[in-house]
Amino acid sequence: MRACFSWLVSLCLLVFLTACGGGGGGGGGGAAPASAPPVEASVDKTAITLAYEEGTTVGSTASILLTVKNIPSTGVYIGGEATGTAISSADDINFSVVSDSQASFQVSAKTGLTEGTYTGDILIYVCLDIYCTKNAPGTPLKVKYTLTVTPTLKVSPTSVTINSVSGVAGKATVNVTLPNGYSGFTATQYGGSPQIFISGQTSNTLTLETKPWRSGTYGATVQLTAGSRVVNLPVSYVVSAPPGGENDLLVAPGGLTFSAVEGQTPATKTLAITLPSWGSPSDVSIGTGYYSGSGWLNVVRTQTGANVTVSAAALSKGTYSAYLVFTPSVPGTAVTVPVSFTVGDGLATPAPISIAVTNSTVSAALSGAVPVTSNGVAMGWTATADQPWLKLPAASGTTGGSLSYTVDAAALGAMTNFGSTSAKVTITPALSNVTPVSFTVQLSKSLAEVHFVGPYALVTGRPMLVHVRGKGFNSVSDLAAQFTAGSLPVADLTLVDDGHLTFKTTPSSVATHPVAVANGLGLATSSATLNAVAPVVYGDAVVPSAGKKRTVVLDPLRQALYVTNSGTDALTRHRFDGTNWNTDAVAVPSVVDVGMAPDGQRIMVTSSGALRLLDPTTLSTKFSLAQNFAGGYTTGIFTTNNGWSWLATGTGDWNDLGYFDHRSLTMKPRPSQPELSTMFYSGPWMSASRNGERMIVTQSGSISPAQPLLYLDATTSLLKVNPANLTFGYQVFMSDDGSRVMFDQNEVRDQSFGLVGKVRLPDSTYMAVSGVVAPDGSKVYVLAYPQDWVYGTNMPRLYVLDASVSPGLQEYLPVLGYRTMTAYPTCRSDAYGCNLRPQAAISPDGDTVFFVGDVNLIVASTALPAGTTATTQTKPVAPKQRVRKLAPGLAPGVR
């Protein structure tokens, strides 16, 4: 078969290049002249040998030299082709012109051929025309070739897959072909898991094995090397689960919890271990780790699992945690088992102790003992208390015994009453790892105490109901046995509430009597003092006292009257020495009111901006408090038996009612009563019973409609509206117990505001200007001026009226008589400039009245002149009026 030449060359003086094949047309002349010699062609060899190693990318080459003689002028055309499979004519035979008569053919073997020997011919053409229709004699020339492809490094198969069942090993053999000149190879495994490994090799084989493994697909690469030749062999290990399934390492339970007390070792707990189903040949290793504490956890492998123990021998109370790690051989998965250990107190914590000291508490109740108990092992201990009032007589011992304690009596006496405190007792074990335990001893002190009594002064020979104010009376189990009033006889002792007692007494001699409630421990508590004074014969007297008087208070302990004098900006004192009256004063700028402290040991005086407590003897200031007090037309400072002194507070005309607390020495607003509306314009006006139980409060008189009269009892200190619809009054005078109240010298009412009787003077030419009520409420004393009091010659009269009659039986009180005074307390020069109404007081025995005005202090006996005849003014009430329907809670006579 004629080949298609890639190149055609004319060998002559000129070289022509043209394409072979296709086309038509002339290409360079006809036949040579007959006389020309024939063309001769020859090659330098008849055979060539080629060789390379399998897999080489560059093939073997050889050259053939063609020589052409007698080339005609028209030139010749040359080319070459190959037979066989080892050389491609188109790609593997190339030639080049060497000279005018020679060309060199380069022959290259095909690459990529497998191992073996390949043969064929190289055909070299010399043509006289471009289409090679006429060859030169003896052509084409034939050159035999032989190609030898030698073996390289290779494996069979080129990849390996080992299939197995979980727990069963696998094996595979790989054939290895070596390059010429090599007698062996090296094999190295890269990547993959350790379950695939090289188990052996020969000069021409490689053995791969797999370990028993869990299901899954695993891979590795084995690299074979011979000289510079490298072959990578991929290996795949495919493991299938057995028909019954498979399991990894199992440990049960999944966690352990222990508990013990300090020093103990609790019972061992067992873990069950199930090995992996793929039959790992080695056992399970066990490791221990701690999150808190150390050394307290121990584990021992058994045939079927593990025994786990913990110990609190060196642990203090708390919660500790650790873990156990069970690690099987590969490919098993490690299992972690958490372990928790709670260690409790080695000592039992004693329960809290509460000691409540009341009036019935005796010394034995201040001591006790608590057991000291071990929760585990026996041990010694010591104890301490963090407060000095709690004593521990025996502060050490061993468990199984007890710890005694006692309250120090001296410390208890110094402790604030109605308070509580606590001490912490700590018991420390002798074993260092055992935690100390603590318990509290709560001590409360609630001993009944007396704060105030009302009244604070009694008159010998005169019976009196005394109000006792304090705290804790309800807790006294035997009040009659524990209540004391000095040497005073006590009758009808009555518990009103926790802070209020009453009793009746008649002092027989002058003395001071401490009033208290004793207790079983003999501890001192606050007490009040009752003063028994003798009746005083003051005698009639006129004591000059110039200035505008606002309020007056009588001090029965010192036979003195204290008067606020706004005309001289002073507190004036008139003191009786048994024969004469002595007058002195202390300056009080902008003085307002005066009153007596509830124990009679301080004089209270207010100015527009301050309250002062004065010593009754020296008139020196012992305490002062900045406070605004209403000027207005107030009538004094009045004290209730709960220790509150009531005052008008404010800076202008619109005022309010507040009180001074003698225990805390502070001013406070009255208890809130949102439901009660009050109007104290230029007021309020007040009056209180001498025993401090009842106070009457008058609201503004210039407000329309008229505001109701108010009252309060010391028990609640809440203002109430009177049930008799009474309104404004200028002056209110009360008996010692509040059972009789005189309003503006017009009428007398009882404690329930029932009308006892009206005040009507028998002589219409006299008008009532002031008055007082007898301490026992049996009489009222009315000071009356004649109508011509400014320029006339008539003297004032003191009328005495009987107030002991029962309410509702008569309209007017009987007049028992009168006595004529020797002087006026009021100036008489100007009916408008002189104060018509003097301030009034009465001695606690009821024998003397005191009226102080802007010129004189009048001291007068209440005894009527001998031969005085009573004037009856009783107006019988119609029978149908004698019986009246009572409103709920009101006494008879209250409408």
UniProtKB/TrEMBL annotation:
<protein>
    <recommendedName>
        <fullName>BACON domain-containing protein</fullName>
    </recommendedName>
</protein>
<dbReference type="InterPro" id="IPR013783">
    <property type="entry name" value="Ig-like_fold"/>
</dbReference>
<keyword id="KW-0732">Signal</keyword>
<feature type="signal peptide">
    <location>
        <begin position="1"/>
        <end position="21"/>
    </location>
</feature>
